[in-house]
């Protein structure tokens, strides 16, 4: 049951551009906007107002609903979570998480994952899939939602975001790129109330304009350029103003600078005002009305805000028209008015409820059908298990492989150890926001919790896949599941000594809370050390949503370490593909692993004093752009494994003696700024997306087997650049497939934005004067060649 590596031709310039470019041009947007205007002109004021907030009465199992208007053949808008699966639905696929996709460093695989996900959304009648998660990026390694997105480097995240937006929307399904913006921690992400009833605001993320542009806004810009039809504003405040009522973010940046032509929707319960938010640029309040109206937290602002606001003049009818047009433009852009668009799957409304309150409460409240009369869901999975397996294997990072421990050959007795190797005991659904199933001791962490999770129909656990493989090769498998026994060193059930031990350990992560420990969960360190004491030949596999420290990494008997992220429902198969070498590992870390947690940068803000000050929660992003590898570089801290790092079963070098060539496409005399007379289009100033330089080098497979590698381009800006620029930034990567002995040319095309800094004073991207240094290598610290070039 080998898994074929699809031989992949080099990402040539034309193809790479496709991954970035929208499937829609400005004319498509303009035509769709015209249809939206005509549509809006046929609505009554009440109908228009009803467009601006959710109304779950029209239900059908969607987490957000804009009700239909049959008179106009408008079929309504169904919004569903989320970025890794169509959540709260059955017979769907649970895909590898965002961070797993990012770890492939492969635009094509990221696109395929998104395309399959979008196909399932369409099959379920979802018009808007709430994703991709573009932030949090991972300012903090312990961020509870880091696994949903594409990691802390804006260039990698930007490429992944663009490929994901295109992949989903090529099915005619809208994306809602979220969470806009600076939603970097879950702790106090929303407002709260103290015991004595006084209000406490959500955390305020305070960042300067340049940091916003060059780091946190960067991937959102790619999302807009790729045609994302909606942006979801986040729970937190930015500079003391809630993100969902912040005119600088919603108007100046999104509309004026990025040319965004879709609509802004609030995160669920993230709206804090009517007229204020409406005039600041928010178009849709979610979830809006939830029957019965005493549903906890079901305050909603837009209905009254608009009804009263039109009367007292605090909102204009022009603004209301604009809101509806922005909401309807994507509907026409993606041809969602077509009768071919499936209606919402009827089973989903029961599943939504079952997920939330459980079947027993549904019996008590009389809403449960008789056995045999449950509507069953449409099976939309197709052959997506293949995509899951390939992406998960490609997103698995080999960090250590001494004495050729991997790939495995035919160990006679295999020991499988650890709580992460096994079937979760309480079913395959991460119960919303709690840790009942997956945070409990036993259970494979194939995905995280919260809105980004999914209801798996079945999963393949590591133990199951290893057993299948063992049968094929005539090996025996023995196991211990509980970390308690391993941590206590109790191996009484094991005889003889295994030839090979594989330890599976995990971290649980979920929306709603941040992680509190850098190590893998449940006494993992003691468990791992004891297995390594027992076994001459130990392989460690981690399933986690991001940064975990590996304090046992240097133990000599630990021969190999694989970081498998959250792999989705083909968890076991994808890791077996790597362990036995059917797939040569090529994943690269999309973040940095420190030696100890304290090395990693600013801690999550967590106030422990009783708070009477409403505005007390403040996160000052005073490190600017220096997060993840940029922080380690600037502070001269040696990490354990750096951003961009990952091993293979073969070896690679830069060909031609490490020669790197760089060529300006602008005759070394580019203008400092884009031409101010050219109009902004969807995605911002068009000249920012023009290629201005090309860097070329050669990559060789110097080992004995074929495999993929990921040459990476890091750019150092000239010394004339204003203070605050990181020492080096990623600005190019290509995942290439090479037969043993083969050499290929790789070229990285740099766009104007890639070689510009954001000048806050003139609000413009500027190419600095002087020498840029272009370094090419295999990680953020492993450079094999470099060259200097002036661009102006
Ligand atoms: C929600 O939708 C239902 C059915 O379409 C409608 O009767 C009700 O008035 C709506 N509620 C609000 C608050 O708009
Ligand atoms: C609604 O669809 C029907 C059937 O396709 C069509 O006859 C009718 O003209 C449409 N109405 C509007 C307002 O577009
Ligand atoms: C958060 O703020 C909103 C709007 O100001 C308010 O309606 C809501 O009750 C607050 N939530 C909590 C938990 O305090
Ligand atoms: C936040 O405040 C800083 C400092 O005044 C400013 O540079 C930045 O532009 C502000 N950002 C937003 C989103 O308002
Ligand atoms: C395992 O770790 C998770 C996450 O820290 C925790 O929620 C859970 O309670 C732990 N389980 C046991 C059995 O200690
Ligand atoms: C972790 O260790 C503590 C203290 O030894 C013990 O009480 C606890 O049960 C252990 N938890 C797990 C999941 O092994
Ligand atoms: C924040 O503090 C609370 C109370 O001390 C604690 O329970 C929680 O784990 C902390 N959260 C983080 C992310 O450190
Ligand atoms: C790997 O090789 C090193 C050096 O040759 C040796 O010290 C170490 O014990 C070996 N480890 C294993 C797991 O065989
Ligand atoms: C390139 O620059 C040189 C020197 O400034 C100039 O002589 C030449 O005409 C330019 N070539 C092009 C194609 O613009």
Automatic annotation (TrEMBL):
Physiological role: Beta-glucosidases are one of a number of cellulolytic enzymes involved in the degradation of cellulosic biomass. Catalyzes the last step releasing glucose from the inhibitory cellobiose.
Compartment(s) of residence: Secreted
Keywords for the protein's UniProt record, in alphabetical order: Carbohydrate metabolism, Glycoprotein, Glycosidase, Hydrolase, Polysaccharide degradation, Secreted, Signal
Biased composition annotated in UniProt, kind: Polar residues: 185-196
Broad class of enzyme this protein falls into: hydrolase
Pfam families linked: Fn3-like, Glyco_hydro_3, Glyco_hydro_3_C
Reaction it catalyzes: Hydrolysis of terminal, non-reducing beta-D-glucosyl residues with release of beta-D-glucose
InterPro entries: Cellulose_deg_GH3, Fn3-like, GH, Glyco_hydro_3_C, Glyco_hydro_3_C_sf, Glyco_hydro_3_N, Glyco_hydro_3_N_sf, Ig-like_fold
Keyword NADP listed: no
Residues covered by the Fibronectin type III-like domain: 709-780
Pathway terms, separated by semicolons: Glycan metabolism; cellulose degradation
Annotated protein name in UniProt: Probable beta-glucosidase G
Region annotation Disordered: where it falls in the sequence: 185-205
Family, similarity comment: Belongs to the glycosyl hydrolase 3 family.
Residues in the signal sequence: 1-21
EC number: 3.2.1.21
């Amino acid at each position: 049951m080998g898994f074929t590596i699809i031989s992949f031709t080099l990402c040539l310039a034309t193809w790479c551009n496709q991954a970035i470019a929208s499937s829609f041009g400005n004319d498509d947007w303009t035509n769709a906007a015209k249809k939206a205007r005509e549509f809006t002109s046929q609505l009554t004021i009440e109908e228009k107002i009803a467009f601006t907030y959710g109304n779950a009465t029209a239900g059908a199992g969607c987490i957000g609903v804009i009700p239909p208007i049959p008179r106009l053949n408008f079929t309504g808008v169904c919004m569903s979570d989320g970025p890794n699966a169509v959540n709260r639905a059955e017979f769907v696929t649970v895909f590898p998480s965002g961070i797993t996709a990012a770890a492939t460093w492969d635009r094509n695989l990221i696109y395929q994952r998104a395309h399959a996900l979008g196909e399932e959304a369409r099959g379920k009648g979802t018009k808007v899939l709430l994703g991709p998660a573009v932030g949090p990026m991972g300012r903090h390694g312990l961020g509870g939602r880091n696994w949903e997105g594409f990691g802390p480097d804006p260039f990698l995240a930007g490429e992944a975001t663009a490929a994901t937006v295109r992949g989903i929307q090529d099915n005619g399904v809208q994306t809602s790129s979220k969470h806009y913006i600076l939603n970097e921690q879950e702790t106090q992400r929303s407002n709260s109330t103290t015991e004595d009833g006084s209000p406490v605001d959500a955390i305020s993320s305070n960042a300067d304009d340049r940091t916003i542009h060059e780091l946190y806004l960067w991937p959102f810009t790619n999302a807009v350029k790729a045609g994302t039809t909606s942006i979801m504003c986040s729970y937190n405040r930015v500079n003391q103003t809630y993100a969902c009522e912040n005119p600088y973010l919603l108007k100046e940046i999104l509309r004026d600078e990025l040319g965004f032509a879709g609509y802004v929707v609030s995160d669920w319960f993230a709206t804090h005002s009517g007229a204020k938010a409406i005039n600041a640029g928010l178009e849709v309040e979610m979830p809006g009305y939830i029957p019965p109206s005493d549903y906890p937290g079901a305050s909603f602002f837009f209905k009254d805000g608009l009804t009263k606001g039109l009367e007292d003049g605090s909102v204009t009818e022009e603004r209301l028209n604009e809101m509806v047009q922005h909401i309807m433009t994507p509907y026409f852009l993606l041809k969602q008015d077509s009768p071919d668009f499936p209606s919402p799957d009827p089973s989903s409304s029961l599943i939504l409820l079952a997920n939330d309150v459980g079947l027993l409460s549904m019996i008590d409240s009389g809403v449960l059908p008789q056995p045999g009369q449950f509507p069953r869901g449409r099976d939309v999975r197709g052959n997506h298990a293949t995509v899951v397996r390939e992406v998960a294997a490609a997103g698995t990072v080999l960090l250590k492989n001494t004495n050729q421990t991997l790939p495995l050959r035919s160990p006679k007795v295999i020991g499988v150890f650890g709580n992460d190797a096994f079937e979760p005991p309480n079913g395959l659904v991460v119960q919303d926001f709690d840790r009942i199933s997956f945070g409990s001791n036993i259970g494979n962490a194939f995905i995280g919790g919260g809105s980004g999770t999914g209801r798996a129909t079945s999963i393949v656990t590591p133990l199951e896949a290893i057993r299948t493989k063992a049968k094929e090769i005539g090996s025996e498998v023995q196991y211990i599941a509980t970390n308690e026994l391993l941590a206590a060193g109790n191996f009484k059930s094991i005889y003889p000594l295994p030839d090979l031990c594989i330890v599976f350990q995990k971290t649980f992560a979920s929306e709603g809370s941040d992680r509190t420990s850098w190590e893998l969960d449940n006494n993992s360190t003691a468990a791992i050390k004891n297995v390594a004491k027992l076994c001459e030949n130990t392989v460690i596999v981690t399933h986690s949503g991001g940064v975990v420290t590996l304090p046992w990494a240097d133990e000599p008997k630990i021969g190999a370490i694989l970081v498998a992220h959250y792999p989705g429902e083909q968890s076991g198969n994808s890791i077996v593909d790597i362990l036995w070498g059917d797939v040569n590992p090529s994943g690269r870390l999309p973040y940095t692993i420190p030696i100890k947690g304290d090395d990693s940068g600013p801690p999550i803000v967590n106030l422990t004093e009783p708070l009477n000050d409403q505005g007390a929660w403040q996160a000052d992003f005073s490190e600017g752009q220096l997060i993840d590898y940029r922080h380690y570089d600037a502070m001269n801290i040696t990490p354990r494994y750096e951003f961009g790092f990952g091993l293979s079963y073969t070896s690679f070098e830069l060909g031609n003696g490490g020669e790197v060539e760089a060529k300006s496409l602008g005759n070394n005399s580019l203008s400092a700024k884009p031409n101010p007379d050219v109009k902004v289009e969807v995605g911002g100033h068009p000249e920012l997306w023009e290629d201005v330089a090309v860097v070329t080098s050669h990559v060789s497979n110097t080992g004995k087997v074929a495999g993929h590698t990921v040459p990476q381009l890091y750019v150092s800006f000239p010394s004339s650049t204003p203070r605050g620029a990181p020492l080096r930034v990623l600005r190019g990567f290509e995942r290439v497939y090479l037969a043993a002995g083969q050499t290929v040319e790789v070229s990285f095309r740099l766009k104007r934005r890639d070689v510009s800094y954001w000048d806050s004073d003139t609000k413009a991207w500027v190419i600095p004067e002087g020498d840029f240094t272009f370094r090419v290598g295999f990680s953020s610290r492993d450079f094999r060649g470099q060259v200097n070039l002036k661009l102006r």
